[in-house]
Amino acid sequence: METFGLLLLPEFSMLPVTAAIEPMRLANRYANNELYRWQTVTLDGKPVQASCGIKIHPSLSAEELPAKSSIVVCGGENIQANTDKSVLNWLRRRSRLGDKIGSVCTGSHILAIAGLLNGYRCTIHWENQPSFSETFPDIDVSGNLYEIDRDRFTCAGGTAALDMMLAFMTSQQGEEVAAAVADMIIHAPIRHHSEHQRRSLPARIGTRHPKLNLIIQEMESNIEEPVSPAQLAKRVDLSPRQIERLFKRYLQRTPKRYYLELRLQKARLLLLQTEMSVINVALSCGFSSPSHFSKCYRAYYGRTPYRERGISSAAPTMEKETAAPVPGD
């Protein structure tokens, strides 16, 4: 029997927590045996509120969690503000005692601060990957659904927690148990860890036009040092005018505008999720002038980058539908 201790941080995301627990419950039911045991845990044993507003009364305090448990750090919103030194010290101590330690959603951020991901491959929710890579440049982070690397396991969050737990079951209990659980939760097929977290680019932009997809891939791969329109045109063997027509037809905006939106969206995530200075955020997103960055940001989001820092508790959503016109860049 394996025991999982789910460490619930303030504002944790509810979905990956339940997605991790339910497969264990159903595996026990299918086997008619206690294959898994789980405990919800907070550092002091007091209730904690999820990002959705539901308050959870934990089973145990951190100190009451049995030895040799597999610890799952459950993150969510405002992970930096909810990083407690006592939690870091507790995780380091449990690691020294030989516990397996992992995370779901933004919990990887906590593990990285604690130094528990050094030399390990990990993942984190796609929305947090840019800030994670900026903050921890030496840690090997992937865009996969989950990563299991020796005694560390990390998950992007959401329903990816199902696939990670099913992977554990496959290795520990066999394919029959994992398949039966997947059927019971109506989750088929079981996804491989290497699958990407986000929908494919064609699905996101609503078209499979190969040239357009290639151009956007180039844009997304070159945020810090934007590629000029002439360079983009050369790389896809089209003229700048042809590219303009493609963007107008399929995305109802110019290539310049689309590229600028990508850079501003990354900038917002960095402002919300890191302690980087506004100037460094601007440079990381391809703006050579902080004043121009501030002007573009305000036009798009309705507030300056400095004001964004003042309301960093707001959810980091992409506000494209209500965005005002942005000055050219």
Give a short summary of the structure.
It is built from 14 helices and eleven strands. The chain has helices spanning 14-31, 85-96, 107-113, 129-135, 160-173, 175-184, 201-205, 210-221, 229-236, 240-251, 255-273, 278-284, 290-301, 305-310; strands spanning 2-8, 36-42, 48-49, 55-56, 60-61, 70-74, 101-104, 121-123, 140-142, 146-149, 152-155.
Question: How would you describe this protein?
Answer:
The chain has 329 residues and is α/β, with parallel strands linked by helices. The chain has two domains: 2-184, Rossmann fold; 201-310, Orthogonal Bundle (Arc Repressor Mutant, subunit A). Helix content is 45%, strand content 13%. The strands form three sheets. It has a seven-stranded mixed sheet, sandwiched between helices. Strand 10 and strand 11 form a beta hairpin. Helix 4 (129-135) crosses helix 11. Residues 312-325 have low confidence and may be disordered.
